[in-house]
DNA sequence: CTGAAAGCGCTTACAG
DNA sequence: CTGAAAGCGCTTACAG
C-alpha cells in the first residue's frame, strides 16, 4: 500500500528529486539520457503523480466544473446533457482533467457551488450552460476571475469564452422550409423564456414570420417539459384558424405534441406538421418519425472543452462557432392541408 | 488574488496554525472560546480549506468516481443515469465530496480510468453501475482495495458494498398481473445479456412463466436500444401464436414497441399489452401511456452514496436493499384478447 | 490547553 | 546539466 513517489524514482536513478521532476515534465535541466532512464523507471514502478501534491505546488487543480441547474427529471429526459457531457469528457480525460459535476435546483445554488469549488481550488475553470438573459452566475464568475466558457452565444461584455451555433439561421431554415410547403399559419412552442437561446430563437421566428408576411407571429412559452408542451399544443390547436405547422423548441415537447394531435384526431402530417428543435432517438422512436433540427452535440461538448482549456492555459477568450443545425426531414412534416 | 490561508487566521487570532486546524476541524485541543473566535475569523475572511493541501496531509481526496461504460447515445436517451447521478449528488455535495464523472466506451477503458484516478489519488471510492456477470472491473477494484459500492446485487465474495432492489419480486408481480388479466402467451424483451440484472430478471421471468404453467418461456435478448427493441417486437409479433403481452427491460424499448405494434396494425392494449421495465416521462408521453415498473431512482442514487461514504469511513461493507419497483398501471395493459 | 515542527509529494527558482 | 532547499497549505503526533 505504500505510495510510489518521485523519491523512489530519484533513488533508483541516482539523481535528485528535482531532476526527476524536470525529466517527468519534459522541461530542460536534464540530459536526454537521464530523462529516458527516469521515464523508464517511472513506468516500471507504475508511478503516477499525486494530484494533491501537484496542485499544491503548481497552481492547477486539474479539474473543471459543470453545474447543471435544472430539475433532475427534465435533465433525465432530454438527451442533450449526457451527450454534451460525453463530448466534454472526450477532450478532458485525454489531458487527465477531471470533470466535476453538480446538479442543483437553481442559479442561487449554482453560484454557491461555484464559489465553493473555486475557494477549495478544486477547479481551474467552468463550463456554463443554460444561460439566462440576466444571469446571476456571470458577475460572480467575473468577480472571482474564473476561466469559463459559455455553451451559448458570446457575451462580448465579459471575459468568457463561448461556443455556439447559429440558432437564427436554423430557425430561418425551418420556417423557410415550412413556407415552401405552403404553410401560412405557423406557430412556435418555445422553451423557458428566461433562457438566452430561447429568446434568440423566438426573435428569429418572429422575424422570419414577418418577413414572409404571415401575419402576427404566434409564440407560446413553456418550461420545456412534455406537460407544458402538450398543453401549449392543445391550446394552439383549439383556436379558430389553428396553425397547420408548429415548431417546438426541443424533442420532448414535439413528441408530446404528436400525442396531443393524435388525441384530438388531427392527422400528422396531413393536418398538422410538427418540427422538433432538437434531434435524438426520441424523434425516431415515434410515428410518424419527427422532422428535426439536428446537430452534433458531442462535438459541441468537445469544442467547448477545447475553448475552456485554452482559456485556462492563459490564452485570450475565444468564441467558436460550431456547425449550424441541419434540418433532418422525416415523416412529421408535409405540404399544408389547404395548400 | 492572494489566497486566504490558516496562517492568516492564526495571526489574527494570535494562536498557532495547529490550534487553528484543531479548531476548524472540531477536534479537541483548543478551548471553546478560542475555537469560537477562530471560527468567526475564518468566516469573516471567507476562508475555505485548500483541498490539495488537505488531501496531501490527510489522506482523503474528497472525491468519488463514477465511470459510465456505455455509448453516449444510449446514455442520453435513458433517463435513468441523470436521475441516479442527481441522487448521488444530493448526498455527496452536502459533504463537499466531488463526483468525478467519466464516460467511456467499454470496461477496458473503465478499468484504465479507475486505475488512473486511484493512482493520482483523485478519488476515495467508486460507484459501479451496469455490472456484468463476469466483470473485469471487480478484480481490479479488489486488488487496489478501492472502497466501492455496486448499484446492483451484492457480491458476497467481494468487499464491495451494494445497493439493490428486488428485481425478482418486481418481475413476479408483473407476470402475476398479466396472468390475472388472462394472458397466457407472455414474452420478454430483455436487455444486454451480459448484464447482471438482465440475467436475474430473465431467470425470474422464466421461473414465473413456468410456475404459472404457461409453457416454454419466450425471451429475446437485445442491447437496450430502441432499434433492437423494435426489431425484437416485430419478430415476436410475426410468429404464429404471437404473444398477447410483452415485458420490456426498459422504457425506451417499450416505446419503440408501441410504434411497431401500431405499424403492424395491432391495437394496444386491445391485442397486445405492453409493460415497461423502467418508468420515466417517456412512458407518459405516448398513447396509450405505458404501464411500467417504477422506482425512485434519485433515492437509489442517494442510498448508493451513503453506503459508499460509510465504506470510505472505514465501516464494514453494507448491502442496502431499496424499495421494490411498484407496478404503475396505465393504458398499455388490459385483459387478454381471447380471455 | 497550546506551540513548534515534521511531513504529505510535488514544483521551481537558485546555486553550483 | 545537476543538487539542495524552500515552499504550496494543510494535519498530526509530540513536547511543554
UniProtKB/TrEMBL annotation, chains A, B:
Keywords: DNA-binding, Transcription, Transcription regulation. The keyword Secreted does not apply. Residues 4-58 form the HTH lacI-type domain. The keyword Nucleotidyltransferase does not apply. SUPFAM superfamilies: lambda repressor-like DNA-binding domains, Periplasmic binding protein-like I. GO terms for molecular function: DNA-binding transcription factor activity; transcription cis-regulatory region binding. InterPro entries: HTH_LacI, LacI/GalR-like_sensor, Lambda_DNA-bd_dom_sf, Peripla_BP_I. PANTHER family: ALANINE RACEMASE, LACI-RELATED TRANSCRIPTIONAL REPRESSOR. This is LacI family transcriptional regulator. It comes from Kitasatospora cineracea. The lineage of its organism: Bacteria, Bacillati, Actinomycetota, Actinomycetes, Kitasatosporales.
Amino acid at each position: 500500500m505504500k505510495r510510489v513517489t518521485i523519491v523512489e524514482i530519484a533513488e533508483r536513478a541516482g539523481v535528485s528529486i528535482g531532476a526527476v521532476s524536470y525529466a517527468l515534465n519534459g522541461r530542460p535541466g536534464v540530459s536526454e539520457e537521464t530523462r529516458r532512464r527516469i521515464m523508464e523507471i517511472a513506468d516500471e514502478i507504475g508511478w503516477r503523480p499525486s494530484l494533491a501534491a501537484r496542485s499544491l505546488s503548481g497552481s492547477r487543480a486539474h479539474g473543471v466544473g459543470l453545474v447543471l441547474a435544472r430539475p433532475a427529471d427534465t435533465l433525465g429526459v432530454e438527451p442533450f446533457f449526457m451527450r454534451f457531457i460525453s463530448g466534454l469528457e472526450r477532450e478532458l480525460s485525454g489531458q487527465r482533467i477531471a470533470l466535476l459535476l453538480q446538479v442543483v435546483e437553481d442559479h442561487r445554488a449554482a453560484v454557491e457551488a461555484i464559489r465553493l469549488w473555486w475557494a477549495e481550488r478544486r477547479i481551474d475553470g467552468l463550463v456554463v450552460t443554460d444561460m439566462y438573459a440576466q444571469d446571476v452566475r456571470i458577475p460572480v464568475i467575473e468577480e472571482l476571475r474564473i476561466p469559463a466558457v459559455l455553451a451559448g452565444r458570446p457575451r462580448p461584455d465579459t471575459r468568457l469564452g463561448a461556443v455556439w451555433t447559429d440558432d437564427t439561421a436554423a430557425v430561418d431554415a425551418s420556417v423557410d422550409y415550412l413556407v415552401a410547403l405552403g404553410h401560412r399559419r405557423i406557430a412556435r412552442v418555445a422553451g423557458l423564456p428566461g433562457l438566452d437561446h430561447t429568446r434568440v430563437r423566438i426573435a428569429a421566428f418572429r422575424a422570419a414570420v414577418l418577413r414572409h408576411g404571415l401575419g402576427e407571429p404566434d409564440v407560446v412559452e413553456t418550461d420545456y417539459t412534455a406537460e407544458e408542451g402538450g398543453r401549449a399544443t392543445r391550446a394552439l390547436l383549439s383556436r379558430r384558424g389553428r396553425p397547420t405547422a408548429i415548431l417546438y423548441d426541443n424533442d420532448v415537447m414535439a413528441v408530446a405534441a404528436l400525442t396531443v394531435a393524435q388525441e384530438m384526431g388531427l392527422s400528422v402530417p396531413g393536418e398538422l406538421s410538427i418540427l422538433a428543435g432538437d434531434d435524438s432517438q426520441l424523434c425516431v422512436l415515434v410515428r410518424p418519425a419527427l422532422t428535426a433540427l439536428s446537430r452534433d452535440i458531442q462535438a459541441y461538448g468537445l469544442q467547448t472543452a477545447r475553448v475552456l482549456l485554452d482559456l485556462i492555459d492563459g490564452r485570450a477568450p475565444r468564441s467558436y462557432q460550431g456547425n449550424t443545425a441541419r434540418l433532418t426531414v422525416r415523416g412529421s412534416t408535409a405540404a399544408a392541408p389547404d395548400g
